[in-house]
Records
---
Amino acid sequence: MPPSMEIAVLLLGVLALEMRWSASALHIQQAFASPNLTNNFVVDPVSRKVYLATVNTVYQLNGTLSVEVEKRTGPVEDNLLCHAPQLPQAPCEHPKSLTDNYNKLLKLDREQGVVVVCGSVYQGFCELRRMGNISEIAVEFPPQGEKTVFPSMLNIAANHPNASTVGLIFKSLGGNTRLLVGTTYTGAGTQFFPKNHSKEDLRFENTPEIAIRSLNIKDLSRLFTYDINPSEDNVFKIKQEVKTKNKLNFVHAFIQKTYSYIAFNNDAKMGHKESQPNSILARICLDSDSPRKTTGPESRKLTESYIQMPLQCGSSGNIYNRLLSVYPAEVHAEGGWEPYLFGVFSKADRKAALCAFKFGDIEKEIRQGRRNCSNSPSSDVQVLDSVIQGSGAVCIQKGNLVLQPEQLDCGAAHLQHPLALRRSLKALPLFEYLALSSVSVDTVHNHAVVFLGTSNGRLHKLTLLPNMTLAGHRTMKLPAGEAVHHVMTFDPNNRNFLYVMTSHHMLRVKVAECDQWKSCTDCLGAGDAYCGWCTLENRCTIQNECARGLLPRSWITMGDGPQQCPSITLTPPEISISAKIEAVGILINGSIPDLIGSKVECEYKPGVSTAATVYGPAQIQTCPLLPPENYQPIPPGTDHLSVSVAIKVNGTSVVSGSFIIYDCERTGQIHPKTSCMSCLSIRWKCYWDQENHLCLSSKDDSKPNLLESDASCPILTPSEAPPLPSGMAQDFTMILSNIQERERLECDFGTEPRYEAIWLDNSTVKCSGVTLFTNQRSQIYHLSLRRAGYFSSQREDIFIDSPQPMKVEVYNCGAGSSDCSQCWGREDQGHLCGWCENSCRPRDDCQPIRDVCPAPEIHKISPLRGPVEGGTLLTVQGRNLGRRPGRVKIFVGDVPCVVLPERYTVSVELVCRTGRSAHDRTDSVRVDVDQSGTGTSKESFAYLAPSVKSIYPDKGSRAGGTKVTIHGEHLDIGSQIRVKVNKTEECTITEKTDQMIKCIMPPTLEADTEPVTVCVEFEDHSCQDMELSTTYTYEKNPTISSIHPTKSFLSGGRTITVKGQGFDLVQSVTMHVLEIGQTNCTVLSPSTITCLSPESSQSQETSVQFVLNGVPYTGDSPSSSDDRPEEEDGEPQKEHFQLGYVEDPQFFTANKEKQIKHHSGEPLTLIINQKVPSELELVPEEYSVMIGSYPCNISFHNDQLFHCTINGQLSSSENELPVTVQVGNFRHMITKVQLGGSELAIVVSIVVCCVLLLLCTVALVVYCTKSRRAERYWQKTLLQMEEMESQIREEIRKGFAELQTDMTDLTKELNRSQGIPFLEYKQFVTRTFFPKMCSDYEKSLVQPTYENDSLGPRALPETHPLLQDWQVKANNTTQPNVEEGITLFSTLLNNKHFLITFVHALEQQKDFAVRDRCSLASLLTIALHGKLEYYTSIMKDLLVDLIDASASKNPKLMLRRTESVVEKMLTNWMSICMYSYLKETVGEPFFLLLCAIKQQINKGSIDVLTGKARYTLNEEWLLRENIEAKPQNINVSFQGCGMDSLSVRVMHTDTICQVKEKIIESFYKNLPFSQWPRAEDVDLEWFNSGSNSKLLQDLDNTSVMEDGRKKLNTVFHYQVPEGASLAMSMKDKKEKTLERVKDLDTEKYVHLVLPNDELMETKKSHRHSHRKKVLPEIYLTRLLSTKGTLQKFLDDLFLAILSIPPDRPPLAVKYFFDFLEEQADKRGITDPDTLHIWKTNSLPLRFWVNILKNPQFVFDIDKTDHMDACLSVIAQAFIDACSISDLQLGKDSPTNKLLYAKEIPEYKKRVQCYYKQIKEMPPLSEQEMNAHLAEESRKYRNEFNTNLALTEIYKYAKKYRNQVINALEANPTARRTQLHHKFEQVIALVEDNIYECCSEA
């Protein structure tokens, strides 16, 4: 199935699921859509009219939500700082602007016939509109000409769209109507007040938070006044100074009993503690109750009875602290009917909860609070001092004052102040869910049904049991996912409907859809209290929809339970087909009304029924049965028929059941092997006639011996029979039970023939000579005993009962046993087979029997790779793989593999689980079979260590579906691979290779954004290894806020722009247009997606859903739970979006011409009229007009027409060009442009054509003449080109063949038996520190001396003066002074101030050259080698000085060269610190590379004089001649060496010197090079025939001359044959040794080529014309051949250098790199390139390049000039890899740089990764580094002669004595510590000038 289809199916599934959910709960009966945002609504309980207030409009709707009256209320000219214009003499200086009017209060006063409508404009002004026609003002206020109007009478509601207002209307004691209003304060200092304005008007401060106002329309002068004297007592007003601590946000006001309750939140506390409740319930007593004792006629005061308490929903740690909606309701709880207050509370993470509080508890807390305030003041209650009326009053003890109930409820005369309870009234959540916003409660049949709206457009219905636990939960979606208003109201006339207001809709929702449940049990088990079973209508309904639902037992409720559902019991339940029964008795169970007087029928099938007889109220009745012929016949193969009966009452089926008609005779027939037992064990009564073998339905006196119990049936008792070979005769004995008399029986195996059973006794029979055959491996026969009596001729299937059939297995040894193990392995199944004569036969046919099988053979293993942890299910296929799993053992190398018996197939296949391997390895698989031997696989199984390197992308949405790619190594190994996300979820793998896995991420419900682990699990191993895991971050889901445009034309193709956030996480988008089609979309930016609308067949409104990353987009999915609550989001996220289709636009020219004539070359302008549906809102960019293939420029003038202009010249081969208008996919040709021209143009065209024809004729004649000449020249050139091409093709073919075979050859020939000849540490140090041999004593080391021993001559070990003992070259009298002086000098050097001053002083001298600086640095390193910590600190101080000097110039040049002492000190420090790493990690791959280079060079011809070779990496050393070098082997003995002769491989072009070198290498390969003899010191003799010998030399009297030069003798020159015997011996020391061959003068001697290849070619060209001339550049391909052969070794070396082994991390590198970064930070150097250069100059270029170019520093080997040239190319590649600048290479670039150009980028990444890994290493403290350096010092203690080093340093001190003393005197610290005197004392001691010393001291 293609992905698009999968997505479509998935989307349809989601839509179907949503439809099912909505169907299961509620149903929108009527809906009204508002263009503006809705604010409030109220329902008239009498007229059922609905009054709806929205922004700028109020509506009057009828009961079905159709508009009756509509009235605009805004926008109006207003300013927040202006008084209402209705206030007389209240001018405003502030500018007014059009302001939207948000409705703040909408209340219905039926008695006075008015609707109170308050808006946000005019400072919260209220209007009194007429009930029944809301467009009319019922009472004009203030009246015309009224003078005494105060702002407090006009400023009633909140004057800001986001500020809250609540209210209620009640009648007071005197019959006056009053309005209680609670409103949020919006004055100065709040977020609602205009910024940058001071208090300009007391209006903004004087409006109270809560007030009771007069609403008596007959007394207009007091309308909206506080109606009490003093008025302050009827208002609740927060003091100005504490208003910031009391930001009241009102939720709802309602009346319960004689109290008004106001619920609100104190938003001032919202930011402080999320765990503290901020929700408050306040109560005020209304004076609408019976008269009370008062001292005067005034009404009850608001503040006297005001009391408030906090509400807490949730327990500690999980408190929902913000109230969103409340609803008072009386519900049937466990203790009876009780009023509750239900509330929806939320917290910061959008989660919300439903809580319920008992009003009894509320009243109890209020009474106790007032009692405590009067009698025993406590912290539980206090006077609300934040209110103006609460000033100065406290709760004080009043003695033994007893408060009356009236005083406890509504306050006492002595305490007329508002109170606040401190202790919260607590409740636990009944239900928790996301984004709840509103609540409404109904009580249905003793069940509380709670309706919950959400801020994302859902309506939940909960059914609660009396104990307040959840019994049912249903959900429906509301239109467009709009937020539900916090107030919902039931229809006053029919509580089966609920009025719900969303942000743009008014809905009338039916509370239940009961008719979806089709059965009574489903109906009552649905958990919906509204739904019950209407018994006489046989359907699930609401009670008032059941016609007789009020009658007893007519309507069954959820509380009655499913056990009350009607059912019937029939008597008898089973009837024999032969019985004569006329009627059946029926008992109706369950709840059903009295049926007497009703028409009751029994219906057997549609249209066939009989009249029932009813007996009394017990619901017992009888139904006549139909005649037997009216029933369906019993189906074949069965013995009964089920007949359904439905009870119909007054024509409606009420309940149904069934009875059974059975036939006993059929029972015996359909079970022939168990006919008796089947007959007697069936659930209805049957009898068995054994004599006639019949099952009877009735007992007959004529047959007295009928059996009635199945225990008395004659049966065959089964017995075990061993497997039987095919074709072998066998006897069978059987035991029978319950046999009365013997009768004739036959053994029936289901085949012919049958065998007669012989009776052995009364219960045993025997069948003899039974022979059964099979050509299958095994076949089961069933043995039955056939009754062969007199009735067998009439019926065939008459058997003795065999309840458990007797099975006989027949086997054929020859079938299914292809090898020995398979054959013998059948023994476990009881098959007696044996292997003989190369086939499987019965054992009786095999004589003699040998049960030993051949050794196992393995043909195939899979998989071929697995993890080192084991657990791989390894499948092995082959032959003779054992007979049973217990006798087989499997090993991978020496690692056991456990056989899985359940997956073992004898001999041919077995499966085992691999064990754990200690390390990576590749081994063959071995199978050991007991007594058969061992088999080994040709294929190898590799244990590998997989690793994960990265994941991309490393972030995605929480909804899942992101396709990620995991990169690593060995990821496609083993038998089972899983990718686990956070150790629980699984990433669905779609593709995997060795280096990557592609999978689709699962969704997550976690709200945090912490990275999760993504781990690749192999086999069943849980993920523990960090190498196999990486991290992935789940980010907030993408959100779609809108689409534009929302209309498309029918042809589709219109660009729909999708706006939202987080689209950078989206990889694929599909737009699904419901019932039309889908299109793929494009992500343009993180906030924009574009889609093309699909084509539609008709105009319609449809909805659009998006699929992001394969997951349907749901705007409110729980995975986006970290979003802000929708109340703060503004527009909630949508899931479906509306898209409308309208007719395609129409286009035509102004005059609707079919054709327009146009002269070519003139500008063309077309006027195009259009007819476009206005709702399309097309923009100019969507139009495209083409004239032929020419685009036309469009300019719009109005909505009806536009101009199309072409200024260029139109030309076409056709006369007519179509004019096409395109919008999206809609294309329409409106006319054609006919191109015409003038007669002049035609004449000019003819003349031009004639002239062109003449010119063409002349040109043709000239061309023919020249082409004949060119043809001859071309033929000649072609022959030369073909010859040259043939040569090039041959050369490249050879190069390619060499490239393919070299790696294999090199691996075979590379001999590493000698081990790696590392130099000792002290030799490594001296060679590294003193590479130039800058002293006389170092030059003496160039020529080694030799000594003889049994193994031939050996060079003496190299010694350096710094490694020898120190001897003072002076007389004995001065020696003590010198030693003392040197010791004192050593002490001075250990003084940091002296040493740094000393170094700087020397560096300032012009004659102190670079060579001297390097020497001084190395000598200092030797002298301070025992104190590396001190040496490091000196180096760092000097480096800081160097960095300061470089930073002021160009910091990138620092450390580039070694021009200062500290730079050489750094080189030496790196060498010391990296020696262990070099030896343990890099040494082996480096040595392998050197061996490989030498081996590869020696594989071809090498010119001994020029050094040029056939194989090289360096173009300058390439032998540009096609000189074939044929290899041949010679047998050589080395006299006096004590070894046997060896076979040595040489080339026939080798000189004798080259042959000697190869022989010496063969004999001395296990010794270091310093112990090898030189080729000049040995003689080589060839014994050509018999005892004749010949001394082979490079030059002798047989040498020939060539081109005026003497040619060196080669193997070919002497004609030494293959396998010749040669002898080598040491020369006598007295003999004069010839100079080395490579030092011979190339002007006199030649080997293979002249020094200049081009000169050689020039000279040869005229003499060797027969030789093919080849371009020398052709041989450059050999560079590639050599490079390809060495590539693996080079990669291994670079990997070793640029990797960090976990067991030995390079601490020095980490320490020094951190030092560099610290210095850069201090100097504000932020350029990463500068740091990269510093690191590169300090480690790779300073240390590694030095080692790469000088392997003799590390190994005791011979570094030839040619090897040096190759290493230069490799070192250059390493340098380029460390560079930050990109290589700008072209065809003229040097070949040595081009050679590795392809690899350099990869090496660069490796270098950057290495630097990054070093940076990510844990920081190294000074203590840890000092400990490491101390260990290095201790390791090589006493290796060097430090006194000699000090002596050499002293020479520099003596030379620059005065300059050093001056520097010390100039340094304040040095001067203070008398360092210059100590220095002079040293000089005096060493120079033996004791007097000078004393005098100066």
---
Amino acid sequence: MIMGNGLFANCCRQVTDLLFQTRSCNSPDERSPLLPKPPPSSCPEVPEAAQCAGPYPDIIPSKAATGSLQKCTKYIQDLSETNSKEEMVPDCEKSYVGPGTVTAGPPQQAEASRGVAVLPADLGEGPARLVDHAQSLEARQSCVKPEDSSSAHRSCHWEKHVAAADGGDAAPPHTGRGHSEGQAALRLDRAQMGLDSVPEHRGVAPSPGRPGTLSSALPASVGKTPTAPRTVVLPCEVSSKARDTSTGLVVMGPAACPSTSNPDSQVQTLPSKQQKKKRKKKKLTLLEHPPGLALMNGSGPHESLRGEKDARQNGHEEADPGEDGNDQEVIVIQDTGFTVKIYAPGVEPFSLQVSPQEMVQEIHQVLMDREDTCHRTCFSLQLDGNVLDNFAELKTIEGLQEGSLLKVVEEPYTVREARIHVRHIRDLLKSLDPSDAFNGVDCNSLSFLSVFTEGDLGDSGKRKKKGTEMDQIDCTPPEHILPGSKERPLCALQPQNRDWKPLQCLKVLTMSGWNPPPGNRKMHGDLMYLYVITVEDRHVSITASTRGFYLNQSTAYNFNPKPANPSFLSHSLVELLNQISPTFKKNFSALQKKRVQRHPFERIATPFQVYSWTAPQAEHAMDCVRAEDAYTSRLGYEEHIPGQTRDWNEELQTTRELPRKNLPERLLRERAIFKVHSDFTAAATRGAMAVIDGNVMAINPSEETKMQMFIWNNIFFSLGFDVRDHYKDFGGDVAAYVAPTNDLNGVRTYNAVDVEGLYTLGTVVVDYRGYRVTAQSIIPGILEREQEQSVIYGSIDFGKTVVSHPKYLELLEKTSRPLKIQKHKVLNDKNEEVELCSSVECKGIIGNDGRHYILDLLRTFPPDLNFLPVEGEEMPEECKKMGFPKQHRHKLCCLRQELVDAFVEHRYLLFMKLAALQLMQQKANKQESSGGLGNGACAENGATESGRPEAEDGKIDDTVTGLDQVKELAETIASDDGAVDPKSREVIRNACKAVGSISDTSFDIRFNPDIFSPGVRFPESSKEEVQDQKQLLKDAAAFLLSCQIPGLVKDCLDHTVLPMDGATLAEAMHQRGINMRYLGKVINFITKTPGRAQLDHIFKIGISELITRSAKHIFKTYLQGVELSGLSAAISHFLNCFLSSFPNPIAHLPADELVSKKKNKKRKNRNLGNADNTAWASMTPQELWKNICSEAKNYFDFSLECENADQAAEVYNLQKITLLREISLKTGVQILLKEYNFDNRHKPTFTEEDILNIFPVVKHVNPKASDAFHFFQSGQAKVQQGFLKEGCELINEALNLFNNVYGAMHVEICACLRLLARLNYIMGDYSEALSNQQKAVLMSERVLGIEHPNTIQEYMHLALYCFANSQLSTALNLLYRARYLMLLVFGEDHPEMALLDNNIGLVLHGVMEYDLSLRFLENALAISSKYHGSKSLKVALSHHLVARVYESKAEFRSALQHEKEGYTIYKNQLGEHHEKTKESSEYLKYLTQQAVALQRTMNEIYKNGSNANIMPLKFTAPSMASVLEQLNIINGILFIPLSQKDLENLKAEVQRRQQLQESIKSGEQLEPEDKAVEEKEAEPSMPSAEIPLTQSSA
């Protein structure tokens, strides 16, 4: 961190620490269930806030302070009592600015919102037109109301929707926008990506032309609103890894979050007036980056890093504190949107808002998507009679200005245009049909949110408030959702959507059998013939000619191409059909109305295919386009350039070579990389399926099937078998099966490091029908040469012959630091020393294109010694205790990258502590002579990243100054400065030696991946080094067992990690670097943990994961013996043996009359397995479960105690439906959506009709958007420090960049939207929160799956925001849906269920359904007691909620009982005088009075009978506000009211802190006595109006 910013940030941090007090292990606080904790980080300089927790980083509690929330909460209470006038102060009106930050212009009154965004510093180097991202299509049309647009995501170019030409893939990315090279770049990009010029639209949406429909992704500035200037300020430091960003600055001025004060809402009524206003200029304030800084792309180093000194070891980078970077440069960009008028045949002229950056083609898209013009595809746009070029940017067209008239002119058809037209019409007819999503094609996927909101959210919650009409809300949940219910129906998973019964427009639309037209008809202009049966049952033949479509006189059997009478010649097929079929006319227009009303996120394609494991019975309808796609070589179309397949390798490598010097260039590059990767993955998946299904000819057809290799569509496919005994020493076929995934991990890693000049192959691993297929792009020229000639680096025989190459060494050396790989020497067969900088298997090949490729990266990471017993090697104690080393099936077990990073981080802390201790001793020794060194060192070395170790340990002691010294010392020594005294050198040397660093002047740990590789020999000279490396590997193996596994279990115990199913558990393990083969050990560790009951949920998930993974291993080999005709019978038989209670299921072999005996003999070898084709049929449940248990023992080293499914369910309390879901997801099986009876002992559960499909399971590289990720993290850090508006700005900016790179759909965009919604909510903008969260839910359903644990959480958030918007019935529906999904995925006994039930109970209490409410709240109480311990504050809160409901029912005795329980917990945990305890005791008094009053009244009635004098009793129905307040508390959101006086205090406090900070410039930490002062003085100064406390203590 640079000095000035460091100061400032420290000041913020101190303020934050007081707010977001941290949880020490025992602190009695309530963690918000929505805030995952970051995994152990891998770089010490980062504030924890900046580290992403799993895929969904939320607001993460700061860990810098220790101590509980008590003072804070107490203070909050005091405030709320004393301040009758709760003044919410705008957040950062008077934000603080540290030296080195730039403030933007005089603060003007923002008429709309003024955005302040922080951009990576290197933006300064390029033409910064970033801000005017033109909004490309679906963005602009999406049918979202103006309120939505206020969030100002200027989604730059979502190109996904423009599905091109004849194949529904995406059209050209609208590149030329982000930079000045404009068209040139665009053309280049088109050439590169092989795109076709006429795009065609799939998921169509309404245009923004009609008043009232603006898009969610439209820039506020393009919408019809005047927008104030946007300032962009850049931080001075961008650190060396995307995830290591720490934020440098805050910005002054009324930076209202764009979502709050946008005048969009008034726009709806007066578009015409507002449209005329021009867009204001946007300003960019840029900061030159100081020359001493390394700027990183996040995905890898730039040139600037090359010459850096070696001080940056292992990514622990230190910025040069010298420069403050004060140069500023301001660029003003002229960018005004304008309106054009469009004249199209047959519709009223209409206006369209456009931006100068758009291409003409985008107007085409809008027209093909508008309800009234969607049926046109073949037209040109003309201005004053001149045809506009499709790929021209609007600003380059002469005479195009505000109010210009553009004419839509119908053009003559060609065969290609006619096909595009028919395809487009078919897409319009199918636009509401979900069958593509169920069948997993064309990147369609399911979403059910609209079924539960009934479209309510469309108006951003601006509907009539339903709060008053409570009696109309039906709150009763379906029976199976109630607590305690045992049934888990499956049908509710995919409720039938009303819109799916599509309005039938035609019975049949298909290509005619008379195609193609004979020569004489061609010369009359016939292009092709269609055959149509209308709903009225009229059979007609249609000719597509150059002039349009008309009826001809052909019938099914007679060809007569003459026009019929009347022939109704129409330019568009829809117009023709409208004339001949009244039903078509009516239904087609109704269908288009419905289509444009859907949320765009329901229909945009996802970047990668998501498959559904269940699907309803669907009737198979006739579809000409689908049939044509299946049987013609689809390659010609889909790959955009007709008649030519895409050269995948060229595309993948060219995109990597795009320039990346500044932000626009990087965005362009990352977008291209992402696009090509997602296309490549789709093509590779299709190819792999074709290979296994036997539809591709092998390139070596004469060899045995296992050995065959294939080339299809310029992709090379090989099967996961050990060909030619390549892996003989490593475990044969088993090793050949895992090698591809290891290789893929290697490719991922090298891609992430992103070294210029080093190329990897496009790699996708597909598991399908029991086979593993690796798909790779092809190195140019490799097929012509022998492998021996090609390899110029590495070894092709696992280390016998080894070669090296200086260029490869130079390139690989750049990767060695981030990947922690040590450069080492090995001996080849002639006993010569060869130097390598990777494992020996890694091969370097120079392609015919002159590029340096590396492949076979399967041993990029060091071996895992726990699973690699080596003769004569002693393992550490910790390993031996747990039964390691253990022989594994193969010898390719490596450590994960996360583990290597965590291990190095751990060693770094150790290094710092050791050195600090030695320095302290030295200092003590020479204290008498001269004691000055320490302080001097600290002062110079202002804001480095030291001090993290203390934060972690919770001990702040003398070592602080010591650590700073070490830091400085390390730097000085590394820079080879002679000034260091030998004693200090000695200190560093000792510390280096102790932690195993390879350098003795600085901390640098690296691994040699070849240690313990069979067949690799090392020269004598490096004997000692090899010994050290062996020790390091043993330490890493021990670290996994002694630190990472216990760490994971502890996090589960603290509920900072909350897995809900197998996938989320695997993710949690992987984040900590624990491989799945340790699953048995993790479960064993859990069983031995004290507090075992609180880990019940983890134990259950672990066991079901263990069972289903073992079953998957068996299923894989089982399927290999099955031929295609027996597939559904075999899968249903396997599932019966696995899950059914039926004791002896019998497999149904394919009917005998279909299996001709002769044919079988001949075709024997086509079957890839060598098993007998019917061997699968003899499997029994006993045998399968016996195999599962032995597999679990052999692979996971865990002994299962069960002999069949029923026993497993009973012993481990598992749900069979959950097991079915897990096995289906893991194997790609799709089953029929119906209720399955697993426990019927008289007939099997599954029949072959229940197996609908088997999908591939695909693993691929996920390219990242580095800059966007930077922004996202900076935004999180800002929010963390309490600067909500700035945080909001940054996250909005991140959203734009994510959209720019990924298109509209992606998990990271989902995380972004979720955080934005949360911020909107905290800042009081409920409707905006609702709109953003709705998008997050839709996206989570589409990208992750409808019942993914993250989707369940998104549903819960959305329900809260619905409730805040007074949409009570919707909120309940959403909560019920979330509960159902959770029951299906896991069951009831999960800590997250307590939160869910509390939410449901509170909402029901609010609508006065007291009995129902109690059922849910009491269930929540039971679960909380189990998982948090009966003495925790969560349980106290639960008791209080239950007491409130009893009070409402006037059952005061029960209420008192519960409140007493709560009071006791508060008293014991927080003490008598804590606010909470007092509150509880007040409430107890009140309840007692009420109870006494009630008793008196009853006595009165008994005594005096009917003429009793009855006092009216107060029964309190809860107010919505009080219910919402409780909802906020349980969901971890707290609001702190502030008065003016508090603000004054706050300012004084901040100034005091700043002075304090300047006097103690000691990195991040304060000395202990100052700390105490901090705490005392903090009380009267709580900053910032509404701060979400990330934990609430009830």
